[in-house]
Design goal:
With 774 residues, the chain is of the alpha+beta class. It contains 13 helices and 39 strands. Strands 11, 12, 13, 14, 15, 16, 17, 18 and 19 form a 9-stranded mixed β-sheet that branches. It has an 8-stranded mixed β-sheet with strand order 30-29-31-36-35-37-38-39. The protein has a 5-stranded mixed β-sheet with strand order 20-22-23-25-26, with no helix packed on it. Helix 10 links the parallel strand 29 and strand 30. Keywords: Signal. This is BQ5605_C003g02305 protein.
Length: 774
């Protein structure tokens, strides 16, 4: 069989030899054209006759050459207590697999169960294609029965819709209390490859609580996105689902008063191990006002310190100003200041900045954190004292030590509210030990953290005893859309996307009793001050950088957000009534953080071979997005999409093909905000440079015309192999250092490491000279 040219993984250099060897492929003929994979269903637990979820996910693959639309679903057998329905028709394109969301409505508790350990029902799909109407397909749904009660709070599984609209699940351990409700939730983030619903050691490692629910999110998959982006949003969705649905179902199952057992979640206590430990660092440092504190165990600082990036092949070819690693990347305060003044663009490394936990270390100052790691008591001594070496063969203890030190260095100011971070090194323990969260030291820390969080949550106007009349802190972010506030201060928009942003705040009371604030900004275009339980929230005088003070004593009542925007003329800040509408930021990986199913639009205006090539890319993108992160996708042709573009909703959109082959790319690109122009099917202009070499591809983010918080991604090339090169840049995994736009090198440019040009767009999607390599 001859393969199409785009299926060959050619490097563009025919003189290179490829490794050869023997291999064997065993193929199994699939007779069904539509496959319902019942063994891959996403189902909730059944507790005392009540289903602990409101949705079931059933994996359906379309193996025929025509698209399939699921119009209706029905449950048969197992009683009439449950009604199943679709929120809307579900279309699956040829070669695509989707997790069909089947919504459940339960009238009453199931009276007659099919067995003592599970309850089975038959699910029937009614589908239509261009050739058939009303075809039926079936599968079996099995609900596992869990004996869980307040006296025996066993872990249960509950289902909900992820950020992209695909069914997902999390594990939950209920509290013992029946008459009280805690505003604190424990959020436990698992390590790589761990499924909280099936891993025998994960959920039992955390003791049940008297009043608090414990949430064990999946993060979309066992590997997920390192608790960044889509996985982070999934953990928030799990907490929201607990409040909006699960607490009510739990109360019904046990005859409890729902208004007593269900209360607002105001603070999180974040626990995590290994990759989840890194995830705990990530979440706590991005949302300091949302959390009471946490316990990161055996977590790494950031992916560049964990994975050897220097082994990348492209590392040996690319221009250092494109991909160089700063000598000041260690993350201390002094080093960070030096790095801000260090020359060199380092575009590719900048694309990882929003995931670098050490750059956010200042946000952790004042929070209660217990970092845990296993060590070995060495026979060597250091200054006549036992020397603890790392016994962790996965994540060396230096990661925790380094991060704790970095946080403490940010807390050196006398008014920095202190550093409440602790380092706990456990002798003779490896990467994982069963009692990591159950030991007395950890349990006592969690208990105190929960009680402190309750006090703050229930008495938001009262201050903790250690809070002083003077406070000093620094809030940092590289992506305001994935960073919350600290003491009510929130960075809303960056002056230069791709660069780190910081706001340094001093709060004090003057001799006359006025509440004063001094703010220094770095790469901040807009920020807000909101209601928060910091000591001096009713600010009378606000001084920003070197400009005159702003009188806030008579502007707004307490509890109202105040917004400040930089002037484009003199770079001074002024107060505004409405917050600025900042654009969403890259890197390219941000396209997968979609509020609804990802829309993949195929260009059909070019040649038939180009259209079929784009269809192939669409199927592969949808398959990989589902495989790696359970991100759901809807594949459409450009013309039908344009007919209903105004009702596309809050979905990120991927446009396949240039303005000559894709009518959506042509129409949406006319706003001229992004400096990319397709001069011909084989020539692409970025800013003032034209790319027209063979086998060059381009992939870039752009504005979404109907959703200000959504993103558009355009993928094209100068020819078929150029399309393939652009396709390979699509970011399915974390740690891929790709900014907001990338142009691949051409056929004769193998020594450029695969990338010809790359960068970030400006604040309004325009050209950014300082953050571009062209």
């Amino acid at each position: 069989m001859r393969l199409p040219p785009w299926t060959a993984c050619s490097s563009g250099n025919s003189s290179r030899r490829l490794a050869t060897g023997k291999w064997r492929l065993d193929a199994e003929e699939q007779r069904e054209e539509i496959v319902v994979r019942g063994q891959r269903t996403t189902v909730p637990s059944l507790v005392r006759g009540w289903i602990m979820g409101d949705v079931v996910g059933v994996e359906v693959s379309n193996l025929q050459s025509d698209k399939v639309t699921i119009k209706q679903v029905r449950l048969e057998g197992g009683g009439d207590e449950i009604v199943a329905f679709l929120s809307q028709p579900f279309t699956i394109t040829p070669g695509q697999t989707r997790l069909v969301a089947i919504h459940l409505r339960q009238k009453r508790a199931i009276r007659k169960l099919t067995s003592q350990t599970s309850h089975e029902v038959q699910l029937n799909f009614i589908t239509t294609t261009s050739l058939s109407k009303g075809a039926r397909h079936s599968g079996t749904i099995t609900f596992p029965i869990v004996n869980s009660s307040p006296s025996n709070p066993a872990v249960i599984t509950s289902t909900y819709l992820s950020n992209s609209g695909a069914p997902t699940y999390a594990s939950f351990r209920p509290p013992r209390a029946t008459l009280t409700c805690s505003p604190i939730v424990l959020l436990a983030l698992h390590g790589a490859g761990v499924d909280p619903a099936t891993a025998p050691e994960w959920a039992p490692s955390i003791k049940p609580r008297q009043e608090e629910w414990i949430v064990f999110p999946l993060g979309l998959t066992e590997w997920g996105y390192d608790w960044h982006g889509p996985s982070l949003h999934d953990s928030f969705s799990a907490v929201q689902h607990l409040k909006s649905h699960l607490k009510g179902k739990w109360a019904k199952a046990h005859g409890l008063l729902e208004d007593v057992t269900s209360c607002e979640v105001k603070k999180l206590v974040v626990l995590g191990h290994s990759n989840g430990g890194q995830g705990a660092w990530y979440l706590i440092s991005r949302y300091p006002d949302l959390v009471a504190g946490g316990v990161p165990a055996a977590g790494y600082v950031k992916i560049q310190d964990y994975v050897p990036y220097h082994l990348s092949v492209g590392h040996h070819y690319r221009d250092p100003s494109l991909t160089g690693v700063s000598a000041f990347a260690a993350g201390t305060q002094l080093q960070s200041i030096l790095a801000d003044h260090c020359q060199g663009i380092q575009i590719l490394i900048s694309s990882l900045a929003s995931f670098d936990n050490d750059l956010y270390a200042s946000n952790l100052v004042g929070l209660d954190i217990l970092a845990r790691h296993g060590v070995r008591l060495s026979l060597l001594t250091e200054i006549d004292r036992p020397f603890l070496q790392s016994i962790d063969d996965n994540v060396p203890v230096q990661h925790s030590r380094q991060y704790v030190t970095t946080v403490r260095e940010w807390a050196t100011s006398s008014y920095a509210n202190g550093s409440q971070i602790q380092m706990s090194e456990v002798p003779e323990t490896s990467h994982w030990w069963d009692s990591v969260f159950r030991e007395d030291k950890t349990q006592h820390f969690i208990d105190e953290l929960v009680e402190s969080g309750k006090t703050i949550a229930r008495n938001s106007d009262r201050l903790r005893e250690r809070d002083k009349d003077q406070i000093e802190f620094t809030l940092a972010t590289a992506n305001p859309h994935e960073t919350g506030s600290k003491h009510g201060f929130l960075i809303k928009e960056l002056e230069t996307p791709g660069r780190l942003s910081r706001i340094h705040v001093k709060l004090w009371t003057s001799e006359t009793g006025l509440k004063m604030s001094q703010i220094e900004t770095t790469n901040v275009y807009a920020f807000s001050i909101g209601p928060s339980p910091f000591p001096l929230r009713q600010i009378a005088q606000l001084s920003i950088n070197v400009q005159p003070s702003i009188d806030l004593s008579t502007t707004e009542a307490p509890g109202v957000y105040r917004h400040f925007v930089q002037s484009s003329h003199d770079r001074t800040f002024s107060q505004t009534q409405t917050p600025p509408l900042a654009r969403p930021y890259g890197p390219l990986l941000s396209i997968l953080t979609t509020p609804r199913p990802l829309r993949i639009v195929i260009g059909t205006q070019g040649s038939s071979s180009r259209t079929e090539h784009l269809r192939s890319i669409a199927r592969r993108l949808a398959s990989d997005a589902y495989l790696y992160g359970r991100v759901d996708s809807i594949i459409q042709d450009d013309v039908p999409f344009l007919e209903k573009e105004h009702i596309v909703g809050e979905s990120n959109v991927v446009l396949l093909g240039d303005s000559f082959s894709n009518s959506v790319t042509n129409k949406w690109g006319k706003d001229g905000r992004v400096p990319v122009t397709f001069l011909s099917p084989s020539a692409i202009k970025v800013h003032d440079r034209v790319f027209q070499a063979k086998h060059q591809g381009i992939i870039y983010l752009a504005a979404h015309p109907f959703c200000s918080s959504c993103l558009t991604l355009v993928l094209s090339g100068t020819d078929s192999l150029g399309l393939e090169r652009a396709c390979r840049f699509f970011p399915f995994r974390t740690g891929v250092s790709l900014p907001e736009w990338v142009v691949s090198s051409g056929a004769e440019d193998g020594q450029k490491g695969g990338i010809e040009a790359a960068g970030f767009w400006g604040r309004d999607w325009g050209w950014s000279e300082s953050m571009s390599f062209l």
